[in-house]
Design brief:
Layout: H1 3-10, H2 23-26, H3 29-46, H4 54-66, H5 98-101, E1 118-120, E2 126-128, H6 129-138, E3 145-147, E4 154-156, E5 161-162
Antiparallel strand pairs: 1-2, 1-5, 3-4
Length: about 170
């Protein structure tokens, strides 16, 4: 029999509060921590699982796709920046995801999927001006009113602001 296996079998004869070595060390808290970590490591290797939870990997990929160079800037407007007088709807700059995304690199977008002539409604949603006016006219709204296609909220056309991306 292997000596380590003999010592482990002898643990059956010694209580956890024993003063006899090596059994005292084998019952110590650091040994239990070591065994717990060894179990998790072996489990992950056996089932080919990454050390990080898969949810963290998926969330990190999504956050990285949304992150821009302006995120985490001390000058960027955000709910997490106390010196900012404006707020943003950027998920990366939000209080909930700010720390998760801090260590991630930002992605370089080569193609924009923003509609032509983008405008922002008072609720923060961005649409193309032409599409917004066309949908509002089709919806039977009076002149000078626009309707958010997602939330169905109606606003004055004068409250719609042009968006400039940098």
């Amino acid at each position: 029999m292997v000596p380590e296996l003999r010592r482990a079998a002898a643990l059956l004869a010694y209580p956890p509060n024993t003063r006899a070595e090596p059994y005292k060390t084998m019952y110590s808290q650091s040994r239990w921590d070591y065994l717990a970590n060894l179990f998790v490591k072996t489990h992950h290797e056996l089932f080919a699982l990454p050390e990080q939870p898969l949810l963290h990997i998926a969330v990190s990929a999504g956050l990285s796709a949304l992150k821009t160079p302006a995120c985490h800037s001390k000058y960027a407007s955000s709910s997490s920046n106390a010196s900012s007088s404006t707020t943003t709807v950027c998920p990366i700059c939000s209080t909930e995801l700010n720390e998760l995304a801090r260590g991630l690199r930002h992605v370089q977008h080569s193609k924009s999927s923003v509609e032509h002539d983008p405008v922002v409604l008072p609720n923060g949603r961005v649409y193309g001006r032409d599409r917004l006016l066309e949908m509002s006219a089709k919806g039977g709204l009076e002149e000078g009113k626009v309707k958010d296609p997602t939330t169905s909220e109606i606003y004055d056309a004068s409250s719609v602001r042009k968006v400039f991306f940098s």
